[in-house]
Amino acid sequence: MATRKEMKTPPIVSQQEWEAARQQMLVKEKAFTHSRDALAAERRRMPWTPVEKKYEFEGHKGKVSLLDLFEGRKQLIVYRAFFEPGVFGWPEHACRGCSLGADQVSHLAHLNARDTTLAWASRAPQADIARLKKRMGWEMPWYTMTDSFDKDFGVDEWHGHNVFFRDGEQVFRTYFINNRGDEAMGTVWSYLDITPLGRQETWEDSPEGYPQTAPYKWWNWHDNYDAEPTPNPKWVDITTDPQGAAIRRREEEAKAS
User: Fold this and answer.
1) Residue 170 confidence (pLDDT) above 80
2) What domains appear along the chain, each with residue ranges and CATH number?
3) Beta bridge partners of 213
4) pLDDT grade for 77, boundaries at 50, 70 and 90
């Protein structure tokens, strides 16, 4: 392993100089964050295109349609993973890049709480997919493509995320991201930022009538959304008045000691 003396590293400075440099960088980072937010707002205003063709997949319970992949929710993100004959690693492993991406997928309960479903799709049989998921500890729904879905949506030769919106029985394609854009995927925020409804929080610049709730307050433990759909008042207190909540917590601890 190379040592610092062998690398052309940045200068070594005092804590005060380091903090000044950090503040300068922070200005640029905040500008980047605001730019990313503006891009997501523009993405939410992109036109949609209807999906008229009927697609069929194999799931662990049998044949399902594209509409079924939504699992009753309004938004669907489908990632085309390469796990099938002819792919390096078959049949023991999926593509190394797709597998690295699978290891980054955040807990699906948080996406589901925002009316969004994440699904993966490959051409491997369901028995192989089930075996791989168990071995690697992956939990996402993973379907077998049986028709031209991959070719029709630009993922027959390369990975990518396609985003869909459901209005009753009608499905629309709203967005597509691949190549280096896929590298950033995995967190609940990166997924929601490519959906037509976004994070659905009040600070977002979204078209009129889009569902939105206050930030932070909808957050929950991943095993508690069904048990407590409305956030606990103590959690609301923390997100509304963090400093006051900390003081009250210390007072309660002092009384208990």
Assistant:
1) yes
2) 49-192 (3.40.30.10), 216-257 (no CATH)
3) 201
4) very high
**Contact of 79 with 167, CB cutoff 8 Å:** no
Give the residue among 153, 141, 167 at the shortest CA–CA distance from 67: 167
Sequence-ordered strand ranges (E) for the chain: 49-50, 56-59, 62-65, 75-80, 116-122, 142-145, 160-167, 170-178
Identify whether the C-beta of residue 133 lies closer than 8 Å to the C-beta of residue 154: no
Among residues 110, 178, 108, 170, the alpha carbon closest in space to that of 139 is found at 108
- Predicted pLDDT at 235: 80
> Is 176 within 8 Å of 163 (Cβ atoms)?
yes
Phi and psi at residue 123, to the nearest 5°: -105, 0
Helix orientation angle between 96-104 and 126-136, rounded to the nearest 10 degrees = 60
What amino acid occupies position 109? A
Q: Which pLDDT tens digit goes with each residue over 204-221?
A: 999 999 999 999 999 999
| pTM of structure | 0.92
What are the distances in angstroms from CA 169 to CA 70, 166, 246? Answer: 11, 7, 48
